[in-house]
Design brief:
73% helix; mainly alpha; two-stranded antiparallel sheet; CASPL; 207 residues; elongated; transmembrane; membrane; cell membrane
Amino acid sequence: MEADSTTINVTETPKERKGKAPLLAAPPASSGIKRVFQKAPKGGSKRGLAVFDVILRLAGIATALGAAIAMGSTDQTLPFFTQFFQFKAEFDDLPAFTFFVIANAITAAYLALTIPISIVCIIRPHLVAPRVLLIFLDTVMVALTTAAAGGAASIVYLAHNGNSDANWPAICQQFNDFCQKVSGAVVASFLTVVVLMVLIVLSAFAL
């Protein structure tokens, strides 16, 4: 006698199908979390560049202000004089040195005023507009500071070496302290130019 086989069909109710739905939707949620973690390091690197930007701006303030103060306080009077002449050298005797003081003072003030913009970039590192603004303004300051430092450097060179073709004698043998101070101011101004150029590169990398 053959045994009767019985087949029982089990059907799923709509509630059971709904209960399984979250299991099928789980993988997209995990992939979304993975995308968030991939973006996190990028924002962290931009924030780090913004912090370094603030530090460089503080350093630029120190060098630009130091250059302006050093040049603006430079004068020397020789201990000998005649009945009609007194041998004295001051920075404002030359327009190039006067422009140097004004330009470096403007650069120092500019760097101080742009620190809040850099702080905004730290708080919101993905903003693009503040960094584009800083690139433009930093480039203008590079041009201004380079022009001032280059003009003063040419005068300092003549003061140290003179020019035999134009019959300009070197004066640094007599005004030694004056030449040392103005030379240090020019070096500090060129350091400010380097700081500004690095700031432009940092802002470009952070875009």
